[in-house]
Design a protein that fits this description.
With 64 residues, the chain is mainly α. The chain has three helices and no strands. Helix 1 packs across helix 2 and helix 2 crosses helix 3. The model has no long low-confidence stretch (mean pLDDT 88).
């Protein structure tokens, strides 16, 4: 919520922060889905490491 307000103030727009936040959420969910497919379906693992979703979010935010 606070990030959206800061983005709205910096960008001076109400729609642009929504697009930015939505793009981050969609890229995170897509990456999480691909990692589940790779590790569980292709790799034959029973699950993913509990720290993986958090680390993926941090790295995706840093790359974005």
């Amino acid at each position: 919520m606070a990030i959206g307000l800061v983005l709205a103030l910096v960008l001076r727009s109400l729609v642009a922060p929504l697009y930015l936040i939505l793009s981050v959420v969609l890229s995170y969910l897509a990456s999480l889905g691909i990692s589940v497919l790779v590790f569980m379906k292709i790799g034959g693992q029973e699950g993913i490491v509990f720290l993986l979703p958090f680390l993926m979010f941090i790295f995706l935010l840093a790359l974005g």
